[in-house]
Design brief:
alpha+beta, 5-stranded mixed β-sheet, 3 domains, Beta-Lactamase, 17 helices, Heat Shock Protein 90
Amino acid sequence: MLVLQVAIVLVIIIGTGAVAAFLAAQSNRDAYRDRMIAIAQSVAGLPTVVEALLAKDPEQQIQPISEAVRKSSGLSYVVVTDDQGIRYSHPNTERIGEMVSTDPSIALSGKVQIETQTGTLGESWRVKVPIYGPDDMVIGVVSVGVFEDELKAQFVEDLPGLVIAPIAAAVIGVIGSVWTGWLLRRRIYGLESDEIRTMLDTREAMLHGIQEGFVAVDAAGRLVVVNDAAARLLDVVPEEIIGADADAVLDEELARFLLSGETAETPVLSGERVLVVHGAAVTVKGRDVGHIAMLRDRTELEETLRDLRGARNFADDLRAQSHDFSNTLQVLSALLETEQNEAALSFIHRIGGGGALATDQLRHGIEDIEVSALVLAKSARAQELGIELVVDPASHLREVEHDDDLLTIVGNLLDNAVEALGSRGGTIVLCVRDDVSPERIFVSVDDDGPGVPAHLRDAVFEMDVSDKGRVAGKERRGIGLTIVKRVAQRLGGTAVAEESAIGGARFVVDVPWPEDAGVQR
């Protein structure tokens, strides 16, 4: 880098110096040209010279004038000839009366002639102008010039001034290049280019290979790193948001956490995902250069835990059913051993419709298997808390091909109702219908709990807004309803909170049929 910078500086300075020298030489010649034209025209216009050319012995008058002009102007020569090219003045008096050695025809034609020619005195830069008589006829020529050797000598004399400036500029440029190289090397911690490339390749491989999301902002709050996992969790295209302000492209809560430099692990909602975010401030040599955040998707974890809880609830119910069945068999065995056949038969008829998992009453018109299984799992959970989960007999739902969003809505609404009733028990009524409006699904969940105050019915769908008290083990409130609202809005539907006819809260969601919504997760 240093050699490249020095080479660039030297090339520029040498090139600039050469151009400056050429322009100086050209300027000097142009100055001489203008001066020679002015002097030649002045001599050609002198009445004394014109009268001398028309009189006898013109050299007696013209030679003194020409020599005086030559000496005072600093030119190499001033020569006056008649219209035949015969000299009447010359620095060498022996040449007076001779024919000029160069062609005077151009000047005799009335034109000003400017060129380099070689005459009796040597090579010179000369100007020839015509001398006009009383009748505007050309009666002679004035030739003035300066030797090329003198022009070169003058250029060489001025050359030190042209050389010193570029040399000084070169020294300053080299010193500046050395300082820039030192500063740059210090900024990159003394690393070479191949080392930097290796580090960047390694960093890219690490960032985009890890399964957790990684987001970084600089001190100004602009996004500088978004790895593949973070792009998937945030549903963004890294190339489109890198360099943008974090609070302009990320969800408000995530941007606020990222810019604050918080380090505590905190769940935040981004879109429809619940993310566990762990942040840290980045300092280099005591200077704050930005903040980073690691993102983990708690949505998938919660779904797994919910499925696990459902399986455990089913296992508990099956164990209870097995225990009840064992008791039933013992009663039947005793009746049969005592030959009380009619009593045994009556007992069988009496208990024949029993069972711990009465699934029929929880399905009614719900034909979608996954929604039915979800309702059954929620019912088992509610039963543990002394809560009765009832499916409205008016429910009607045919098989849904893409039911992920519907499962999210129903599951979160039922979880919210269970939390609202808590351990004090109560009743939850679920209604799912697809026959109210063409190609739309209507979901409502009623409970007979404390309900939602009127002033909170709009805000209850926002993060951390809840009328319920803090529940042990839960750090955030209102996430489930917020997700329901966002899913409904993404699908083009609505989610509202109302007062229930059974005394508590009623949550109503109306969304298009998933296949027509055009959105798949």
